[in-house]
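F.,

This is the one I mentioned.
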């Protein structure tokens, strides 16, 4: 019986199977590449869609505000917003004003006067009843311009009246008050002072200023027997130029320490151009410590030395011969308050 032979010989069959396997191995890789290409196309499409949506969103108007809220509350912030300037109150003011008052007591350290070359050098403390405390007050108004310039007007009342019986003869401008005479003594020395100073510091909590003052004295010195039969009076009104300085430092706690001084020592002829051979001096020096209260107000305690006087020959005015010697040294302790713009 004849045998049928396979159309593919074994070698050809093997080659065919290998070819089929190669085709099958290559086909999945191609499919993966095609799938990757499709995914890339999809991502690019999605990215373009997102960019288009963002562009539309930027051109679109903002959403309406929720009910009950003003429209400005939901407006988109602008990239060109400029910060608002600080409030004007936070900047140093070009003008400030304050009023200052002090109230306390005055004690005599030393006070002696003589009128006439043959007059008695009278001790007010030992013989004139000024060995006690006297009330004292002081008032001033201050203006500050452009932070540095200070103008101060001061009024200092000073009226000392005593009644004593003198223990020895007292001679004043050629008149003798016999020992044992009941006396009414008056020493009035109120003064007015106008000052200008320049503060070196810009910080209002610190101060170091220098300037000048012009003081107007208004002196009245009376010696009178209580029965009215014997009387002598010396009166004088005149200008007194002074040099001035004031300082202050404020601690972190708010406590402040300060000083103030007005003074001069010079011949009277230099000060007023006269030919009087009188030398005069005046020192008004104080130190203080205080605390701020509410805005623009402060309270302080003040210790002050007030001293000065004059000695020499001036033009005679009857019944006196024009010779004067008058030296005083006062101390005051006072409580003060200042009220003004912050």
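My design for it:
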């Amino acid at each position: 019986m004849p045998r049928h032979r396979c159309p593919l010989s074994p070698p050809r069959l093997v080659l065919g199977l290998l070819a089929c396997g190669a085709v099958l191995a290559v086909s999945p890789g191609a499919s993966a590449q095609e799938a990757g290409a499709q995914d890339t196309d999809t991502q690019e499409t999605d990215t373009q869609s997102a960019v288009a949506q963002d562009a539309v969103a930027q051109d679109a108007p903002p959403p309406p505000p929720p009910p009950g809220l003003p429209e400005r509350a939901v407006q988109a912030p602008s990239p060109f917003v400029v910060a608002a300037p600080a409030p004007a109150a936070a900047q140093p003011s070009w003008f400030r004003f304050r009023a200052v008052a002090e109230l306390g007591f005055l004690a005599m350290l030393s006070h002696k006067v003589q009128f006439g070359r043959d007059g008695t050098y009278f001790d007010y403390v030992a013989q004139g009843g000024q060995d006690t405390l006297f009330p004292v007050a002081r008032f001033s108004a201050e203006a500050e311009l452009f932070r540095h310039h200070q103008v101060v007007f001061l009024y200092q009342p000073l009226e000392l009246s005593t009644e004593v019986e003198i223990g020895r003869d007292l001679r004043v401008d050629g008149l003798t008050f016999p020992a044992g005479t009941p006396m009414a003594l008056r020493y009035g020395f109120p003064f007015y002072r106008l000052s200008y100073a320049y503060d070196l510091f810009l910080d209002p909590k610190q101060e170091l200023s220098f300037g000048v003052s012009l003081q107007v004295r208004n002196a009245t010195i009376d010696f009178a027997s209580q029965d009215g039969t014997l009387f002598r009076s010396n009166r004088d009104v005149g200008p007194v130029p002074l040099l001035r300085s004031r300082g202050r430092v404020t601690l972190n706690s708010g406590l402040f320490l300060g000083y103030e001084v007005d003074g001069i020592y010079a011949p009277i002829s230099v000060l007023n151009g006269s030919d009087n051979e009188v030398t005069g001096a005046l020192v008004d020096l104080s130190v203080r410590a205080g605390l701020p209260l509410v805005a623009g107000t402060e309270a302080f305690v003040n210790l002050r030395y007030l001293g000065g006087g004059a000695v020499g020959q001036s033009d005679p005015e009857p019944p006196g011969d024009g010779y004067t010697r008058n030296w005083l040294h006062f101390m005051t302790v006072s409580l003060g308050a200042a009220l003004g713009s912050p």
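Confidence is low (pLDDT under 50) at residues 1-45, 69-91.

Talk soon.
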